Amino acid sequence: MGIAWFVVLSAFIFAIGAAGVLTRRNPLVILLCLELMLNAGNLALLSFARAHGNGDGQVFALIVMVVAACEVVIGLGLIVAMFRNKLTIDADEMSELRG
Amino acid sequence: MTPAAVSWAWLVLLLPLMGTAVIALGWKILPGRLAGYLGTLTIGLSFLAGIATYFSLEALPPEGRRLVGSAFTYIGTSNLNVDLSILVDPLSVFMVLVVTGVSFLIHVYSIAYLGSDRGYARFFSYLNFFVFSMLLLVLAGNFVLLIVGWAFVGAASYLLISFWYRRDTATNAGIKAFVINVIGDVGLVIAAFLILDRLGTLDYLGAFEAARQIPPGDPTIVAACLLLLVGAFAKSGQLPLHTWLPDAMEGPTPVSALIHAATMVTAGVYLIARCHPLFEAAPSAAAVGAIIGTLTLLFAATVALVSTDLKRIIAYSTISQIGYMVLGVCAFAYSAGMFHLMTHAFFKALLFMGAGSVVSAIGMTNGSIDRMGGFRKAMPFTFATFTIGAGALAGLPLLSGFFSKDEIISYTLHRGGLYTVLGYCAYLAAILTAFYAFRMVFRVFFGKPVPEAKELAGGEQAHVAPQNPLTGEEEDTDVGFPGPEHHIAERAFGMKAAMAPLALLAVVGGVVAIPGLTAGVETFLEPTFAGSPYLADRPPEAEQITGLIIGGVLALVGVGAAYVVYMRRPGLAGSAQKKLAGVHALFFNAWYLNQLYDRVFVRPGRAAGRFGRTTVERVLVQNTIVGGATGVVRAGTALARAVQTGYLRAYALLLLVGVCALALYFLIASG
Q1: Do B644 and A99 touch (CB under 8 A)?
Q2: Which pTM value belongs to this model?
Q3: Which of B279, B565, B585, B594 is the most exposed place for a label (fewest CB within 10 A)?
Q4: What is the predicted ipTM?
């Protein structure tokens, strides 16, 4: 099986994640979609690592997982704080940065 | 070891400065009238120190009577060295004695005259500051310090003219005086640059030594002298920069007496006498000065003939008398010019003090002599002293002005050539002077008594609602306006105490320089002018005595004419005025020079200011430049703001599009 399929799958998952980030308004779902995008990246890293026959990509994927875990912690914390503050869970409601 | 004369001279300078500082800082805690007594005391001590300077200078041999005392180096560079130095020589000591002596008497007068004014302490701190500045001016040992003193007296004059600062007319007069004086300051500064450029030093003695080495008529020196004349003329109220001096009468009368008659306005004469080696190296500039001095003395005498404001008549007479002094020093008759400066300080201060007393008597509402008359009985002391002052001004035989004025004229005639014509013009003005001097006396003190004079004779003094003497606007008596009480010499001991010595000096002041008998001024000043080739070229005694006789006769003619016009045939003045209406209007409006300056300088200046404010500032600067710049920034930021929607998903989309675009670019670029 060639590497192309893996990369295509990875791109596919990444696109699903990106589309989710762009279209969904629930921050929880946005966070999930972000995870999807990260994992799409992981998949690509692992596939290339396998294809090249060395472990560099695998190490990288591990680091991405750690970063993703941290990101989830912070993201969930933010969502909880937001929920406590505004009582609605809607990313579009939070538009105070408008210029 | 500093010579004693120099130490005394520093003390002369320091005392008024201390007085200023103490009064200005302690005005709140000084009780009652103490500020005035303190200010007077410092000037009195300064006068005593001046006398000590005089004696310690006289104790030196004549050729050693030019002492320079330096406190520290002000500016020190490779080719320019300016010390904070004073020059103590007979000329500066002469000026010190005149300035401190007259100032002391005027301080004494002011204690009484401004007794009820709410700005009492402020007045004395200004007055002490003025005396300090004037002493700095006359004692300065180089041009830099001279310019400092020169500017200081200008500032003091401004402060004192505008002393009653809630009067618009007074503040306007102060501004006018300051602006015209600054024109002179500019002339003086540029002259100092030219002197430094040509002679290589700003020290008096070095510059004068260098000036004697170069042949006469050097263009740079001529230019420097003409610029010095600009400075001198602005300060001394000579044509065409005289218009501020009559307006300066808006200040309190002691200010008119001290600054605008006796001392500051004679600074120009002092400057010319001080810089005599430069003027001798530039005879054409001296001739220009002499011509303008003569024109001024004639012009001002004609205006004084018809003016109706008492203080303005005396102001124009000051302009005229300074014209004599300028003519004298520009005709290289230095001791004659300085002698007239001294006698003029005495009798003119006296005349102003008398005028102040009279103006107080009619309630300080109006200085017009049309409202005065018959004050002789009611104010005998003022009458006597004023008449002495007027007699000295007119040059009546044996009074001080008689000797000094005629000495100037006989020197001028002796110089020959152009100066002969100027001398005859000065004789003509002498008749006019005698006429207007006694016009004042006859109009104010003789004739039918006005109601105020009758009241005063009956023991009452006029008290009307305070008002501006020029515009008649209502005033109160709080700070910034004259105080509630008006003082006349008859009732105030201090005013009498100041006027009596001046009257005495105005009578006997001439004895120091009677031709053939005494030559006090000339001998005393000789060391200063020792190098001058004109020193020995003096008119013979016979010529001087003939001059005195002619001058005396002319003065008597002028007084007699005034007597006929104002006493014997009172209608004559009115009918002459009607017949010569054109000439009268010309003289009365001071040859329309004020109106001319108003048209030529003030109004275009105002119009330019208005144009600048409305067109340049508002349309160009505010709307075009500032408005345009803000418009561009505003438009730019509006664009930037539109991008910032605040929607998280929009940012994410932008990020994604951006990354995709970048990736696409690199793909295409690598392909």
Answers
A1: yes
A2: 0.81
A3: B585
A4: 0.86
